[in-house]
């Protein structure tokens, strides 16, 4: 059993290396390689690349980058308060944008906000919706990184 979980496990309790190459095995925190992964993700995100490293959550990998994405939800989504629940969920997450019914019986709109919050809302649109709705599928298009929000609130468009 290792006394300090953040330290190389090949060290004995007294801190001396137990491996054959004593000069090679130093007291290096196990988390040090993860710092390099974080720097790589930060570097790639400056180019607008949406990267998720294995084992990292969306919020850790993507930070507070603002994105905009259009959506359309298919199924029984009209006449079941879907727009009202979508607006409430968007506001709860701190997102801005809009939602409206279409003539084709779908609901469409746009989401804007931090990537991790938009991802949460996308999942909500695909799987939950309003209590009486039945979602067949949701599509998301025109995703892009934005520098500022285009809206100040989350609106229902009639």
Automatic annotation (TrEMBL):
Enzyme active site: 83, 101
UniProt domain Acylphosphatase-like: residue ranges: 68-158
Pfam families: Acylphosphatase
Gene3D superfamilies in alphabetical order: 3.30.70.100
SUPFAM superfamilies tied to this protein: Acylphosphatase/BLUF domain-like
Catalytic activity: an acyl phosphate + H2O = a carboxylate + phosphate + H(+)
Keywords on record: Hydrolase, Membrane, Transmembrane, Transmembrane helix
EC number: 3.6.1.7
Molecular function as annotated in GO: acylphosphatase activity
Transmembrane intervals: 30-51
Family that this chain belongs to: Belongs to the acylphosphatase family.
Name under which the protein is recorded: Acylphosphatase
UniProt lineage: Eukaryota, Metazoa, Chordata, Craniata, Vertebrata
